[in-house]
Amino acid sequence: MFDIWILVQQREGSIEAPTFGLTAEARRLVSELGGKGIVTAVALGSVSLEELASLGSYGVKRVLNINTDQINRCQGEYFSQALFNAVKKESPACLLGAQTPESDDLFPRLAGLLQTSLVTRAMDFHMDSGKKARAVRPLANGYLFEEVEFEWKDMPLVSFLPSVLFDTEPDSNKDAEVIKLVPDISTDALKTKITKIIEAAPEDLDLEEADIIVAAGRGAGKGEEFNIIRQMAKAVGGTIGATRPIIDWGTLPYEKQIGQTGKYVAPRLIINCGISGANEYTAGIEKSHQVIAIDKNPRARIFRFADLGVVGDLHEILPQVISRIEELKK
């Protein structure tokens, strides 16, 4: 029987949306392996028993909650060793996770300890009972894709792009069995320790964590013209996102791209500036709570998705908005 593990993504004790997408991927793998398997979730740190048990309604058979009073935040060295011990004891078929800063730290450490395969930024992943595995990953800012094949003698680790992990609905009222595991690891033996937590400035937050996003499209312009977007983000305490042309121009790095080949976002407010609203982009903002759009073209597709649409030149409108916000702050 195959045991497919998923890593629970949680923040401040709440399970986050990518976890549910991982349950769907794990159940698909069980089906592809002939249906003879189970899904096990692994949660690191403190999460309520009730919340962990609720994963049963998403097809999770059991949850391994690795927790300790010694460390209350994700610590890559500690939890990779704890996971290594659990894997050696349980021998799962694979471990799936969402690509996050935490998994970026944890998975390479664990793969190194296990001397096993690691696939990052996966968009698709398959494995068969003949010990063959296949994954698809984006290259060149999403312009190209590569397919990699390998044998999975030992447990492979796969981190999926969060944008490909879609919401899934619970299909039963079952509770998962929750098993508490307390690692037998001394913190004195660790080579690294957390000395200080530095909160990121709003404009530097990861798009998927942001409450407010100021998104820029081709209409925002290049060079100094783009500074108005930075000023707007600073005024509202938001993170900057962008469409593909802005990334292609080199104005922002790829991790700031929103859309089908970038990130799917769900902020409380998104202000779209100079964005026409191509389907590839709007697919990435569908879960946004409030949408504002500013564009010169009154027929721009982005207005179909906006709660508030403003027709005009963003370089004339935004300075007035910023000025008014600054006045209200005084």
UniProtKB/TrEMBL annotation:
| Domain (Electron transfer flavoprotein alpha/beta-subunit N-terminal) ranges | 4-194
Asked whether the UniProt record includes Cytoplasm among its keywords, one would answer no
Query: How and how many cofactors are bound, per the record note?
Result: Binds 1 FAD per dimer.
GO biological-process terms attached to the record: fatty acid beta-oxidation using acyl-CoA dehydrogenase
Molecular function as annotated in GO: electron transfer activity; flavin adenine dinucleotide binding
- Provide the family line: Belongs to the ETF alpha-subunit/FixB family.
This protein is called what? Electron transfer flavoprotein subunit alpha N-terminal domain-containing protein
Please report the organism this UniProt entry assigns to the protein.
Desulfonema limicola
The taxonomic lineage of its organism, from the top, reads: Bacteria, Pseudomonadati, Thermodesulfobacteriota, Desulfobacteria, Desulfobacterales
